[in-house]
Amino acid sequence: MLRLLLSLAALVVFALLVWGGFRGWRHRAERQEAVTGAFPDAPADPGPVLHGPTTGLYVGSTIAGDWQDRVTVGDVGSRAAGALTLHEGGVLVARDGASDIWLPLTAVQGIRTDQKLAGKVTLKGGLLVLRWAVGGAVVDTGFRGDGIDDYPGWLTAVGSRLTTGTPTVDDTVTVDDTVNPKDEKEQQA
C-alpha cells in the first residue's frame, strides 16, 4: 500500500511540473504577444526570388539582445526544418509542419552570423541571424543552413538592401551600420 501511495504522489508531482511548464509557456506567449503583436502573414505572391532557397533548420526567434529569450507567440517558438528565401519584399522562412514566417524587408534591421540563439549553440558563425522589428519589439530570427557556404551570399544579398557596405562573414550589418554594445561584449568574451 505504501508503494502505491508513493507512486501516486510521484505521478501527481510530475503532472504538476508538466502543467506548470505548460502554463508558464502560455503566459510567456501572452506577455510577448502584447509587445510584438501578431507576426505578419506571408503574402500569397512574395515576388521574385532574389537569393536562395537555403535549406536547413529554423532555430527560433528571440528578443534582440538576449539569445535565450525565445519568442513563443503562436508557433514561432517551434523549431522546424525548412527553407530560407529572399524575395523582393522580404525574407520567407518556409517551415515544414509549422506556419511560415515572413520578415518584411522594410522591418529587417540587420543580418549576421552567430554561434548561439534560442538555446542552440553551434560552431562560430554556424547560424544566420536576421534582426527585425515586429510590433513594438526587435527580434532576432535564427536559421542554421545545411551548409554555411551560402552565408556570405546571404550577408551580401540582404546587407546590400540595408546599407551601402558589403558585409563579410561574422560581421553584423545593420541599417545604421552600428553594433549593439551588448553584442560587442558577447563577441569579445
TrEMBL record:
<dbReference type="Pfam" id="PF25362">
    <property type="entry name" value="bPH_11"/>
</dbReference>
<feature type="domain" description="PH">
    <location>
        <begin position="37"/>
        <end position="158"/>
    </location>
</feature>
<feature type="compositionally biased region" description="Low complexity">
    <location>
        <begin position="166"/>
        <end position="178"/>
    </location>
</feature>
<protein>
    <submittedName>
        <fullName>Transporter</fullName>
    </submittedName>
</protein>
<feature type="compositionally biased region" description="Basic and acidic residues">
    <location>
        <begin position="179"/>
        <end position="189"/>
    </location>
</feature>
<dbReference type="InterPro" id="IPR057446">
    <property type="entry name" value="PH_bac"/>
</dbReference>
<feature type="region of interest" description="Disordered">
    <location>
        <begin position="166"/>
        <end position="189"/>
    </location>
</feature>
